[in-house]
Each structure stands twice: as structure tokens, then as C-alpha cells.
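user:
I keep going back and forth on a fold encoding question. Separate attempts, laid side by side, tell us more than any discussion would. Would you put together a sequence-and-structure record for a protein of your own picking? Write it directly below this note and I will take it from there.

assistant:
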Amino acid sequence: MNGIPSKRKSILRRSGGRILFLLGMVWTLPNTLIGLLAGSVGLFAGARAYWSWRDRALVFERWPWGPNGAMTLGNVVLNRGDSMDVACNTYAHCAGLRHHPVIRLGDHERAHVYQYMLLGPMFLPLYFACGGISVRNRFERAADRYAMTGRRWCPWPIEQLIP
């Protein structure tokens, strides 16, 4: 890409990113369908839905079941609260292991969206094999790290994924 003018490079990067985004959405579609089903049932109990470009997901707010916070399934976020723009603590902070600044709930869940788009149908088995909803789960630690820094949402170092 060295001989390509910078404006054209930018267009190529953007279009390549969009193609990867669409491929990721297709790859995680089985998970997204589970989220759509759960979210749709929640609509009858008072949830509301909207597409969030920022969070790369269809967000169901005021979802009536489960613990406080949010849960991501593919490109769907089921949020018990009224907004994704609320501050929350990291898993390590809540467990008393580290003092971290508060993070934005939507940023944490966006990391999970990216993780789903990378791993597709393998996400849920790998997530639970790594400890489920726990401070020890590498998926949760990566999502917290991404919410704090805006980088490194992948639960493994990228060099381990690329041969």
C-alpha cells in the first residue's frame, strides 16, 4: 500500500473494516438470534430497543430479568438499566483485587460484542470454559481493560491467534 495515495488508503481501510464487521456479524449470527429472542420477549415486559452504532449492537434497555448490569449475546445487549452510558466498576474492583476507575457499561459490553464477532459460535463455550461470570475470566478482564483504555478487547494476545 506504499504506492497508494493516503486518501485512497483511508478508503481501503474503511471498506476493509466494514467488510470485517459484516463478516463478524454473520459469524456470530447464532448468538445474535438468541439475544434477539430474549430481547423480544422482554419487549412485552416493558423493555425498549434501539440500534447503538457506538456499541455496535441492538440494545434492549429495561430488560426485566437477571441480575443488575448487562449481558451481551452476539450483536445484542440485554441491559437491566435505563442506559448504556452509566458508570460501573470493573470486575477486579468489585472483587477487591485492584482499585480501578469506573468504566462506561457500554464500553465493557462493546468489547464483548467484538469478542463474539471474532469467535462466533465458539464464544459461549469458551467463555464458560474460562470461568463464566467471574473476575478470573479472561473475557471479563479483557472487556474491563478495553473499557478503561479503548484497546485490547481480545482475551488472548493477538500474536497467539496468528500463526
